[in-house]
Fold this protein.
Amino acid sequence: MNKVGKSEARVDGYDKASGRTKYYEDRMPADALFVRIKHAEKAHAIVKSIDTQKALQIPGVVKVLTCFDVPDIPFPTAGHPWSMDPGHQDVADRKLLNTHVRYWGDDIAVVIADNEVSAMQGVRALTVEYEELPFVLDVQKAMEDGAPQLHGEYPHNILKHTQTRIGDYQSAIQEEGLIKVEGWYETPTVQHCHIENHGCFAYEENGRITVVSSTQIPHIVRRIVGQALGRPWGDIRIIKPYIGGGFGNKQDALYEPLCAWCSTQVGGRCVRIDCSREETFVSNRVRHAIRFHIVSWLRKDGVIAARKVELFSNQGAYASHGHSIVAKAMGSFHQHYPCPHMECDSYTVFTNKPAAGAMRGYGMPQASFADESNIDDCAHAVGMDPMAFRRLNIMPDGYRDDFTGNVNYFDSFRTCMKKGAEIIDYERKMKEYANESGPIRRGIGLATFWYNTAVYPISLETSSNRMLLNLDGTVTMQCGETEIGQGADTVYAQMTAEALGLKSYKDVHVVSCQDTDITPTGLGAYASRQTYVAGFSIQQTAGLLKEKILKYAAETIDRAESEMDIKDGNIIRKDDGQTLMSLKELAMTAQYNPVHSEHLTAESTFTIRNNAYSFGCTFAEVEVDIEMCKTKVVRIVNVHDCGSLINPALAEAQVHGGMSMAIGYGLSEQLIFDEKTGRPLNNNLLDYKLSTFMDHPNLEAYFIENPEPTSPFGTKALGEPPACSGAPAIRNAIFNATGVAINRNPINPHVLFAEFSKAGLINDPWKEE
Amino acid sequence: MSQYKVIHCNINGKDVERSVDVRASLTDMLRNEYHLTSVKKGCEVGECGACNVLIDGEAFNSCIYLAVWAEGKHILTLEGLAGPNGELSDIQQAFIDETAIQCGFCTPGFIMTAEEILEANKLYSDDELRKLLSGHLCRCTGYENIFRAVKKTMYRRLGKEIDF
Amino acid sequence: MYDMKALYEAESVQHAIQLRLDHPEAQIIAGGSDVLVQMREGRRAGKELISIYMIDEMRGVSIDEDENIRIGSLTSFSHITRDPIIRQYINVLGEAVDQVGSPQIRNIGTIGGNTCNGVTSADSASTLHAWEAIVELTGKNGVRRIPIKDFYIKAGVVDIRADEGEIQTAILIPKESYENTCGHYIKYGLRNAMEIASLGCSVNVRLSEDKKTIKRCRIAYGVAGPVPMRAPSAEAVANGSEISKDLLDKFSLAVLNDINPRNSWRASRDFRLHIAVEMAKRCLFESIKKAGGELE
């Protein structure tokens, strides 16, 4: 292999560096009408009426549509593949606009105007009459008897409850001499904050509807738009241009269905919906806030004897990805630290908060925070070094998970920890920081994360692609797996060049823009699946194309197919490597042969029935200013075993981004709601504390490259894993520095003030009780 | 009721004039009147830096800059940075070489601020560089490779050895 | 596109005054980093604006005939930070406004706008209070100069007489205030850039010749109350006192007699009180060091 495993420059680098890359808004037709959404200003209510008279009088306003006008079709929004099993289909619980307002920001009406200002004025001119209902924001309060009900068919607001039972927990905990380590761990609501807000535009063409959208999942969105509008799915065409990040938010149908419908309401004219940043925070999707209750029972030697875990996942107002997220989180516990007796229960619960969906890590940043915090508490309770405790209890070498069939082939956890510990000088620093006592204290912390690649066996895992031999011997490649910034197109080019035997990845032209009328069906960017899953279909399709090329070559140069191969863009003789013909010559000959002209192309679908673990860890070193209640991350190191790297520079960059997100998750990011009204308080980039350039140390990313046996290119998940273990590593470093174990993130100055006051590190003599 | 004004300015080295709605931001004017779509909209309230352009050599968020204020100004957008035949400038090339680009949405704004920093011909410390670049949010890169790209280019322009 | 009813562009101070008198409902806009954001949010949607941004005579820093430092109200934060007069005489002001928002915001934001919006969290405000700045207002009846503490009336309200067509034209720092004086500013935020202060503290001192005693100490806070405020009890503790570690403690605890921060979703009163004390201590320590005093 020599096309993969190299830090090639991005295929879209030049265009992005010169500013010519086109995102959805850069392709906007000049005559598009502006759609502005009226968002409810109640957390829970029934819309009784909407007075549209004033809005309609504003010059430029074309139409006002309300929740009383939309089709009576509830639809799901999650970016999951369609399930043939009705029991596994996503929950259809919202309409295009809703009379039953379930969160502050719910969509209740739209104003369509020929200019932006009139549309905004129109929205402000609407008068809404509500019947207010009691609301609930807390996940466990929502489960109580008498709590306000969001969806009639889900008593106690419980969307779903699942459980894991291993061994006999109740009997196991009777064992004499066990040490109990119990904690409640609380993770916050956060948002993806891709710099390009979601937006789209829609128009009708020959009786069909086209939507150009900033999405990660064009093929899935086509199906959802069809469902929401009650139209045959073939009537819908989705075009996905370059997008300014997604991180899972755009793994949902967001405003594509509403936009498509609005176009149909103005005679098929082009309409646009552009989310503002404020709308992105509240009326798109957020990451589930999950509350964990963990009880670990330890023997004196540090072995975990039994464990009980309860997970309460705050779904917000609509099901979106629903229980899948907390189910993944729960599923990690018995694999990450296997123990013979476990009881796990997870609940996904509706509340009057914004709908939670997919976000980078899909439940694992939350699970990692809780699990790795509890594990450090356990190590502390038995007086063991946190790394030694993990080495003792973490998934053993060769472990196999029966459900997925995944195997821990290379003892990845221990290998990654060993490497990270060497890089950050863990042992020495542990000793050095053992007795910190001054006003400024340093500490070091560690956390690991469990992850798996793609979604088999829970959902379908399929990828299709098409390759076309161009007349210059280059290859055009198309697939439904999307470039969202991570560098997917570049690694597809590298893998295609490798699989076909081209001279360079530059000889592959990846069609970046997906168009559901043209692009072979794929599922899109999620579950850290694309490099892994597309790898199979690229390998297979390249094989088919190669077969056709060699077959034609055999006809042309009178030699057996089996004697030939393709190398560096040439057809060669296998035995001595001699060049017989270039691909360009072959392509020209095949195309312009007056007797047998052939356009050499191949297309295929690969459905995988496997999955792969992807593990790693973070080491963090912090400096805590006790009186100022501030934490500075001095060093942070991530180590990943994500298999063989296709493009090491892109992989490193991917890890940096995840680490940054993890630092924000650990220290600063949180969407806050007013307890009295349910109104979001900080849904803008000033008040929501996304890390800036000045909030990071240098980010250090390292890899262990154990080739994944199930993958043709030896690769596995890397997109999401870097976002998982950073926050608990920082939490554990703060614990190490100060002796204060903090069980909630973000660990911002307000949390530190409260915790340090409680622990007696801060004493304000003037403070009244 | 609409109010328009003819605005004369120099954009990417060319003197131009256009009648502009006084309610327009400079972002609106550059994108809609001059089709300079490297000027991105990420928040429209001056928090993300995606719409950043240089005005008389200083970095401004064009979303909170009224188009009418462009009168008489020299404005540089990313489209104006490459040479006449599309040759990338050193900082643009460095963004590619250092893998400082992912989704690309914050890239134009970042490169324009980098350009202001580099034009000062000063050797900034790491902390100073971080502060000078802190008006841009990026969710893909963790800023790490952007930092490397700007720092390396700064050293190169000053003819100094890169100290990494 | 902003939802703006009309825009009036002033070409000179006199023109601005006339526009104010002609359009009493209109909002003045300097750099716009507050006003335009509020218009986008809908709070000021549909309003008329008077832009004074193009009045170049209101830019720049100079020393006037009475040896006051004179800062034109439209001088941007970044220009204040870079200005040689500011760097020589009142460096802390340059440092304070260098912590506003982000580099781009510091290029558009003006010291006039930062004070006229009457916001307690403004990064310039605590330092201007601590240095007893004078605000210059120009209206149809000429120039009026008032101490900055009188300029702030209540949260979001300052003493500008719209009916006299007034606009703020300069901020002055008198010689008696800046001579032989060194100061330090700490902004407390939840991140290191793009931040509104949770609390801002600005301290400055003038030391005795032998650098052992504080001749004059001034301290002011932002966000410790509805408007920026001085802490006179703490100043009284420091004035005339010998420099010691004990003094740092007494001084910082004395601020509790003066400040009155509130509980809000951004920060609790207890938290603000705690860091206010710590910031006072650290600011005084740094100010003494900058002034040449010694403290181990």
